[in-house]
Write a structure and sequence with these properties.
alpha+beta; 57% helix; 136 residues; four-stranded antiparallel beta sheet; elongated; Dna Ligase, domain 1; 4 strands
């Protein structure tokens, strides 16, 4: 019984540390918190990660992107647009455009994946890792 309980708390510590690392928190500290407080430590780090994602989305929307180019993207092999880069990023947040979606503007020679454009690479640094990693 005692071994089983210790195993459960150890696993909770590992899961808590994993989520802590994803939001740039000290995983060793959060491993300890997860082991000591169990499910409560996991709930706290989960709520912190949700808050972190929400804050980073609002930070991007409050920093206007200076771009006068008109962008097009392919949706089911049909060209959609023109859109501003700001609108394209909004579509990314709405899960209508993904990292592997082909985009084009007048400065590009050919269609490129969104993740391969220099404009998106500048913005990507401000996006939470969880948003980019899950959107291929």
């Amino acid at each position: 019984m005692t071994i089983s309980l210790l195993t459960v708390y150890f696993i909770l510590g590992i899961i808590t540390a994993y989520f802590a690392k994803k939001i740039n928190k000290n995983p060793y500290l959060w491993f300890s918190i997860g082991m000591i407080f169990g499910i409560f430590g996991l709930i706290i780090i989960f709520l912190m990660s949700l808050k972190n994602i929400k804050n980073s989305k609002s930070n991007i929307k409050h920093h206007p992107i200076e771009d006068s180019k008109l962008w097009y993207y392919l949706n089911n092999d049909k060209s959609q647009g023109p859109h501003s880069l700001t609108k394209l990023i909004d579509l990314f947040h709405e899960k209508k455009v993904f990292l592997n979606t082909y985009v084009w503007n007048e400065e590009l020679e050919d269609w490129k994946h969104l993740k391969d454009t220099k404009e998106f690479l500048k913005i990507e640094k401000k996006l939470p890792a969880s948003l980019c990693n899950s959107r291929d």
